[in-house]
Design brief:
Blueprint (H helix, E strand, L loop, with lengths): L1 H18 L3 E12 L6 H12 L8 E7 L2 E3 L5 E3 L15 E4 L3 E10 L4
Parallel strand pairs: 1-2
Antiparallel strand pairs: 1-6, 3-4, 3-5
Helix pairs in contact: 1-2
The structure holds zinc ion.
Zinc ion binds next to loops.
């Protein structure tokens, strides 16, 4: 299950990001997942729950947003792809993928320590 590896990396990045800040609690992580990244959002959330259990991020919610795949082709096609469009939907050739294969952390929602 490669979602587990991805979730582990996300948790590591979140750790590094909040380490030097007065963060009391992580509320949520929003992750943007490309439509063609071959990631199952439910499994990703489930992995995140397992990894954060018992640790400082326990109870944080993971939100997964899907980023649509957009491609451009030499035939002139440029636009969004369907889930099964492994070749250009217009000419059947190889397209150039402009977006839709990446996984990135879009937003972190945190509760900060009281300043007082
Ligand atoms: Zn084409």
């Amino acid at each position: 299950m490669h979602e587990f590896g991805i979730a582990t990396e996300i948790v590591n990045v979140v750790k590094e990001t909040v380490e030097s800040r007065p963060v009391k609690r992580l509320v949520s992580v929003t992750v943007e997942v490309g439509q063609l990244a071959m990631v199952n959002p439910e499994q990703l959330k489930f992995s995140f729950e397992i990894i954060t259990e018992g640790g400082p991020f326990e109870g944080a919610e993971m939100r997964v947003e899907t980023q649509p795949a957009v491609a451009k082709c030499k035939c002139g096609f440029e636009g969004a792809l369907g889930d099964e469009d492994y070749v250009c939907p217009k000419c059947g050739g190889m397209y150039e993928l402009l977006s839709g294969r990446d996984i990135c952390i879009k937003n972190l929602e945190v509760e900060l320590e009281d300043e007082s």
